[in-house]
Amino acid sequence: MKNLQLLWVSDSTLQPGHSVKTHAHDDYYHLVCVKRGVMQFTLDRDTFPLHEGDAVLVHKGVQHGFVNITGESILSCEIKFVVLNKALDRILSRASEGPFCDSFVSQLISHIAREYSQNKAMKDDAAAVALETLIYHLTSDMREGDSSRIIDTSGYSDLSRRVIDYLTEHYDENISLDDVSQGVAITKTYLCNAFRKNTGMTIFDCLKLIRIRKAAEFLVYSDLSLNQIAQMCGLVSASHFNRVFMHYVGIPPGQCRRAYAYNLLAGAGDTQRGADSFMYSVLAGKAISPEIINSFESLNHT
Question: Do residues 40 and 66 touch, judged by C-beta distance below 8 A?
């Protein structure tokens, strides 16, 4: 199912002294981007200038209008669309309306208009994909609390998520508790206790788990040697890599590379347990679930 539907995409020219009267759209969103000139834009009760390259997102049901108060014509691009995906619509409905002074936004809007205007197959799909990218860009700050790609953090506190985000970003480095403490701006003692209480893991348990998850991905999808993978994942030696990997996955990394392949999911179900559950999350591109984490015994004994 499509996540959204484009209703109308068009460049328009606003001559000096002309305006679009204040109005609202109850059923769809409206994007306006200035391509040349400066317009005075009204959004709800606020009035502000939109300069060249600026864009604004008008939510459903919000009063808006614009006027050319300059002596030159204004060129703008307008996009009207419906979001069909309910979850995405909920996120977008809470997003900032701007104005956005963002070159990436203006470039994407120009790309959408260009694709939409082309008389060729799949033009609507190509424009819709670009618009979906734009929406995800505009809502990126609202999705920072989402589960990380490596560990499912949906049930964790904001502090634990911040720690896991930091560890995920720096897993390949020789990081210390001082580094993590400074990275999330929380004292070490409180940080360690709060993280352990919330997740059931120590911070270094979590770091090892992230490193092994990344190593498993390299084993399956890359041609790097075991030594290279160990170095890239912050593991001090091949022997250390072997020992920690065995603890989490149940088999040595070399055997894992031979046993698992990217297409192993064919015919596989979600009911696999133990080592298979961990590797299934790798092959399926899923975050490690709390159930998988809880299946590991004596994490801090490695």
Answer: yes
Q: Which fold has domain 4-143?
A: Jelly Rolls (2.60.120)
Q: Strand locations in the chain, DSSP E?
A: 4-14, 19-23, 29-36, 39-43, 46-50, 54-58, 64-67, 74-83, 100-101
pTM for this one? Answer: 0.56
56 by Cβ neighbours in 10 Å (0-12 / 13-18 / 19+) ranks as buried
Asked if 51 and 38 count as a contact pair (C-beta separation under 8 A), the reply is yes
Beta bridge partners of 60: none
Peptide bond into 99 cis (omega under 30): yes
Task: Name the residue type at position 204.
Answer: F
214 and 171 Cβ atoms separated by less than 8 Å: yes
Query: Domain residue spans in the chain?
Result: 4-143, 158-301
pLDDT tens for each residue of 186-235: 998 999 999 999 999 999 999 999 999 999 999 988 989 999 999 999 99
CATH fold of the domain at 158-301: Arc Repressor Mutant, subunit A (1.10.10)
Residue showing tokens 């590379």: 257
Distance separating alpha carbons of residues 278 and 259, to the nearest angstrom: 13
Residue 134: closest CA among 180, 212, 79: 79
Q: What is the DSSP letter of 155?
A: T
Number of H helices, E strands in the chain: 12, 9
* Span between the terminal Cα atoms of the chain, in Å: 46
Q: Which two tokens stand for residue 248?
A: 């989490």
What does the alpha-carbon distance between residue 203 and residue 208 come to, in Å, rounded to a whole number? 9
Q: Which residues of 121-139 are buried (b: 16+ CB within 10 A; e: fewer)?
A: eeeeebbbbbbbebbeebb
Per the CB < 8 A criterion, the answer to whether 251 and 275 are in contact is yes
Cross-strand bridge partners of residue 43: 46, 64
